[in-house]
Amino acid sequence: MAMCEMCGSSTNLVTAEVEGSQMKVCQGCAKYGTVQKSVHRSTWKPRKSDQPEMRVVRNYAQLIRTARERKGMSQEDFAKSLQEKESVIQKWESGTMKPRLNIARQLGKLLNVRLLENDEKKAFVQEKKKVASELTLGDFIKVRKRK
Ligand SMILES: [Zn+2]
Hints:
Layout: E1 13-18, E2 21-26, H1 27-30, E3 34-35, E4 54-56, H2 60-70, H3 75-82, H4 86-94, H5 101-111, E5 116-118, H6 120-146
Antiparallel strand pairs: 1-2, 1-3, 4-5
This protein binds zinc ion.
């Protein structure tokens, strides 16, 4: 049976930190220490991704085709080695369908070509937006000063 480590009472026990050590104490004695409200403190932290935004390069179709041909593979062989349908390869190589990011990464490794690039456009758009809002604020101040 748990008892208060300070007075021996067995009612309303809480865990409190008293002078640096954890003790089971009653509510009455808890005021001498720091009561720990959350015993199960979560150590999980949301992790911000530091991976830059990636996108498939614009000339992916040409890159895939030339790299495949350089390897001497037919579309059929290539499809088999990727466990994809031949029609999928045809779509990639004709530029009618972009491979998904994870597939493009896999393809790039396999063919020794770079099919992904940093999505600088996204970053650029964000930068432009920032500049635009600063300009607006600047103009606003100018207008007010003029009056
Ligand atoms: Zn007590």
